[in-house]
Amino acid sequence: MRPRTTTTAVALALTLAACSSNSGSTASTAGLPALCTKLGHSFTEETGEHEVYTSDQGECGQLTLRAFNGSGTRDQWLKVAQNFGGAYLVGDGWVVTADDPAVLDAARTKVGGERR
Fold first, then answer.
1. pTM score, two decimals?
2. Domain locations in the chain as residue ranges
3. What is the arithmetic mean of pLDDT over 89-102?
4. Which of 42, 65, 88, 90: CA 20 to 30 A from 114?
5. Beta carbons within 8 Å of 53's beta carbon, 6+ residues apart
């Protein structure tokens, strides 16, 4: 499966799994735009239904950023997402994905996180 297809499959599977069960997020979403700025890009928030477990998500250059209400929901999302393969840059309350693992490595030098 191609990386973009993998990312799309993960998004679709998580969205379908959620249906209407949003996490009920009250967390501030200011974190993703700030994270994206550190990465040298402008943040474009995705509107509409978010994937299951996420409190916010959007695009940042070649990266997709997702915010979570805590490490528990982040880890639940990762558990499902990793079934579809791919690489993930994981931080405190956020996950970054990209089609190109080298892009994730470059992002890690700017914002930290753990590559999974």
1. 0.73
2. 3-115
3. 94
4. 42
5. 14, 18, 23, 68, 73, 74, 76, 77
